[in-house]
Automatic annotation (TrEMBL):
<feature type="domain" description="Enoyl reductase (ER)">
    <location>
        <begin position="12"/>
        <end position="345"/>
    </location>
</feature>
<keyword id="KW-0862">Zinc</keyword>
<protein>
    <submittedName>
        <fullName>L-iditol 2-dehydrogenase</fullName>
    </submittedName>
</protein>
<keyword id="KW-0479">Metal-binding</keyword>
<dbReference type="InterPro" id="IPR036291">
    <property type="entry name" value="NAD(P)-bd_dom_sf"/>
</dbReference>
<dbReference type="GO" id="GO:0016616">
    <property type="term" value="F:oxidoreductase activity, acting on the CH-OH group of donors, NAD or NADP as acceptor"/>
</dbReference>
<dbReference type="GO" id="GO:0008270">
    <property type="term" value="F:zinc ion binding"/>
</dbReference>
<dbReference type="InterPro" id="IPR050129">
    <property type="entry name" value="Zn_alcohol_dh"/>
</dbReference>
<keyword id="KW-0560">Oxidoreductase</keyword>
<dbReference type="InterPro" id="IPR011032">
    <property type="entry name" value="GroES-like_sf"/>
</dbReference>
<dbReference type="InterPro" id="IPR002328">
    <property type="entry name" value="ADH_Zn_CS"/>
</dbReference>
<comment type="similarity">
    <text>Belongs to the zinc-containing alcohol dehydrogenase family.</text>
</comment>
<dbReference type="Pfam" id="PF00107">
    <property type="entry name" value="ADH_zinc_N"/>
</dbReference>
<dbReference type="InterPro" id="IPR020843">
    <property type="entry name" value="ER"/>
</dbReference>
<dbReference type="Pfam" id="PF08240">
    <property type="entry name" value="ADH_N"/>
</dbReference>
<dbReference type="InterPro" id="IPR013154">
    <property type="entry name" value="ADH-like_N"/>
</dbReference>
<dbReference type="InterPro" id="IPR013149">
    <property type="entry name" value="ADH-like_C"/>
</dbReference>
Amino acid sequence: MSKTMQAVVLHGREDLRLETVAVPQPGPGELLLRVGAALTCGTDLKVYRRGYHAKMLVPPTLFGHEIAGTVISTGADVAGFEPGDRVVALNSAPCGACLFCRRDQPNLCSDLLFNNGAYAEYIRIPARIVAKNTLHVPNDVPFQHAALTEPLACVVHGLEQCNPRTGDTVVVIGAGPIGLMFLRTAQIAGCRVIAVVKRDDQIVSAKRFGADEVVQIAEGVDTVAAVRALTEDGEGADIVVECVATPATWEQSVEMVRKGGVVNLFGGPPSGTTVSFDTNRLHYGDIMLKATFHHTPAACRRAFELITSGRMRAEDFITATTGLSDVPDVFRRMLVRSATGTLDIKTAVLPEVVQ
């Protein structure tokens, strides 16, 4: 095995480079994986655009976090995994000891351990993630499908925090990868789903991924009124999930929900962003506001089951494949994909593909 490998390194704002780096070596409790597939992600795009992530990484650093692959070697004291195993390794693991972990909120762990470096030939999996958030992938599940576990786990956790019931009306604002996952997950949960989208092509994709009704944002259209008109007695939706991350859609989401309903402000605007809500509506409407962050080990396992059972149809989310050398160009194209009007959900980066 070579001592060096090809990997994509983030150096700063919109600065990705394919470089030759040392192959990491697994320490005690760790795994070394040969990357089978890594997926592009909205969070990675946001980090690429901004050049940093306060919690996850500091440039220059290996990049990418949605991954599945094959165990090549193990460090000392690894239990349950051996070379040749096909696995999906999540991008984080909680400590299990802090205040938030003890309160069953491991997604808010004070010492949440993150791992990056998926856009590479090999990746080292830290011991805590090996022990708490690495799962065996069945032979009939492609690596690119298994790699969808991490973003889907965030969606599963987010929807569960809204306590949906069969027959509930769920509004999802946004039809990017996360919005489409919310549509499909809400549909699987037995909900009636309304999508709020911007582009013409998103109407088609929203219906394909589970929307019963679609409202398109357009000049002169009262989006809130259009959504409420599709709900019982015009009262509003039981649940509204915001996946766009703009002040306008955060504020609209509160106007779309019924009294006693739940709003999940899932999309995260930049730090320092402010919004305005009608306090009278919030208070007398008994409206619950949530802002779900990340995932939990339990949510990861439920997401993994949705994928391996076939109920999620992971193949629908993979719209392109590429090799490592094209990753910098892929991210440059992702910056302007909303202007192209093409269906581009997730690209599977396959290190074995030669460009």
